[in-house]
Amino acid sequence: MRRRDFIRLLGGAGIILSKAGHAADDYPNRPIRIVVPYPPGGGTDIVGRILADKLQTSLRQSIVIDNRGGAGGVVGTGFAAKAEPDGYTLLLVPTSHVINPSIHAHLSYDTVKDFAPISTVASATILMAVNPRVPAHSVRELVEAAKAQPQSMASYGSAGVGTVFHLTGQLFNQLSGLSLQHIPYRGGGPTVTALLSGEVPIAFETMLSLGPHVHAGSLRALAVTSAQRSSAMPEVPTAAEAGFPQLVADNVYALFAPAGTPDPVLARLHDATVAALSLPDVRAKLREQGAEVVGNSSAELAAYVTAEIPKWAALARQAGVTPQ
Question: pTM (2 decimals)?
Answer without folding.
Answer: 0.82
